[in-house]
Amino acid sequence: MNNNDALKIRAEKVIPGGMYGHMSVYRGMPEGYPQYFRRAEGCRLWDVDGNEYIDFMCSYGPMIAGYGNHRIRAAADAQRNELDIADAPAPLIVDLAEKFVSQVSHAGWAIFAKNGNDATTVCNMVARAQTGKRKILVAEGAYHGAQPWAARRTKGTPAEDYVNFPTYQFNDIENLTVAAQAVAGDLAGIVVSGFKHDAGSEQELTDPDFACKVREICDAEGAALILDDVRAGLRLSLDASWTLHGVQPNLSAWGKCIANGEPLAAILGDDEYRDAARSIFVTGSFWYQAAPMAAALETLAILEEEDAPRTLERLGQQFRDGLYEQAQRHARPIVQSGPPQMPTVMFEDDVNFELGFRFCTNALRNGVYMHPWHNMFLSVAHTEQDIAQALEATNRAFKALS
Amino acid sequence: MNNNDALKIRAEKVIPGGMYGHMSVYRGMPEGYPQYFRRAEGCRLWDVDGNEYIDFMCSYGPMIAGYGNHRIRAAADAQRNELDIADAPAPLIVDLAEKFVSQVSHAGWAIFAKNGNDATTVCNMVARAQTGKRKILVAEGAYHGAQPWAARRTKGTPAEDYVNFPTYQFNDIENLTVAAQAVAGDLAGIVVSGFKHDAGSEQELTDPDFACKVREICDAEGAALILDDVRAGLRLSLDASWTLHGVQPNLSAWGKCIANGEPLAAILGDDEYRDAARSIFVTGSFWYQAAPMAAALETLAILEEEDAPRTLERLGQQFRDGLYEQAQRHARPIVQSGPPQMPTVMFEDDVNFELGFRFCTNALRNGVYMHPWHNMFLSVAHTEQDIAQALEATNRAFKALS
Q: What pTM does this model have?
């Protein structure tokens, strides 16, 4: 028995279902995917049986500047040597708030937390405190975290948890208008994401007309435009992602990659919402932890130096072009969606991802970690050579489909 | 202007209210309390102006084995050198789940998260998934985190967020019985804490008869007994804290000190609730982070070696006895409540903590960081000499009251 299977047998006894959440391979991952990893460096992972992979998931987003990045690790360690947590924060919480406020054009202030879902939840609280209203519109199928209000997909959450969170269809102006009218007078906010990156389906870039309409409805209703940039943040733009469409949110939620994998989330807001943000009480034991803030300052510096959104776009396009050419050559038509920085690859007419699963298993066996039904992520630790090597592996994976 | 005030002026511009949450000195801390710290080591803190303090807050709980504990830091660093986060967890998630299951007698399984509030929320979800019922009874005045269901004290949370969380009076059998009857047939769980440690009031140890009654009602209704041991965990017992009263919870929530300040929370449950825990989807980008799990394994080993609950009790009693003697001698009667490991010190008939504030300011000026209206925390990094030195400072603080 290999190490991975031995660990899975032990885990079955002490972890419900063998593993929980999105990192469970039992939840819809193809055959042969490792449940445990031993080592990570740059854009590469090694599983507990010594197999090496070029990673296209980046820990589902958090890794953006390379596993074990020496500059980021050194910055975090230097802070740890002095102080990580205490009875009050370290001074660099102010440095980091200033950095975000200068980098993100809508932001006048920042609050830091741990989970991306902390950030989306605090945005809702600030919107409600500001407006005195209750309803927050969320896009059907969108993921904003696993807290009850955001988790209609799971058991254990009664309907009351969602009663104030009616849904609308992303990119559908008419549908959004009707949904907003239905709660007129009680609308506290509309939550959007950088683009439509729902798991299990083709991704959709944001229609700029839709983005303008969201802003227009929020302005008319006095509601907050809440941008959940937890997943797309810093990969599409170093500013809030909807600035690409000329639209500023009132509140934005950040997490995942902002500290390159150290646990940190951020809530940014404009000056109009400052008093509301001051009026609520939100906190957590680890929300002031200093080492992840030191990591974030270094991560933001690196992403600026590397012109990350353009670099990731170029690398993602190289991967996309290569996959397109291979799919054509092997007569296995694929659908590539989402921005190149966060590519999603599916096969045409692929019921239950049957072909996608086989392809991903083949890619895995050839040393590339891909995902069949979730958007993937590029990092600035990927190089053109890594992409070229990955494409050699995917070519073998296409071949093996026949 | 000193460094602390200069930082506060900068922070006013980029952090709502100058600081958020429980680490804001604007929220009810006495005059002169530092808003920022520069260095932490053992049981000592240094503020940004170089003042040194013996710390009795332990970061509001997380620090239990000393700031910068070398063994714990080495364990976390060794794990960071290999892998912190990846597309799936490191093997030690299984080691840590096994360790908790062997140490905590009710536990058959574990799920790991980041915030203590993640843990309390997941307990609710598991209880509801198991029972198919909606109502969770929570003690009036108790703090279970800042998520909306637990945060009735703050703005920005509409009443619907609490509609399924009716309250009862802790330690009041009759009141609990009535509260449970009012939701009979729809009761998913009752949330309790290790003892009544509400901020701003005298602490109350758990009445063992009350604990038995909670168990009895849960059994009769088929509801979950949910123990929130986030704050009291590992300081009263290395097992779940209500085992001290002979009562086992079905689900328990852990956080704060389990990794000595590295961000980690845990949900433990018994075998009856295993399938329900498997049936829900809960997760977070950083919930599988390996370095805090390495820190937790080392922390748990140290607390066992040091017989932490008894050691902290002895140190806390030394502090309590000294304060009692001083209060008597200076004719300033005090009320000391809660367990010695987590002492709360207030002055008799002290309206608005007026005397408490002056005393704590005096103690601070003499090098001791205390809190006037929140329970404090001992750590195994405190020594008898530290307590003796702290008592010299509190003696000067009592003197200065006259």
A: 0.98
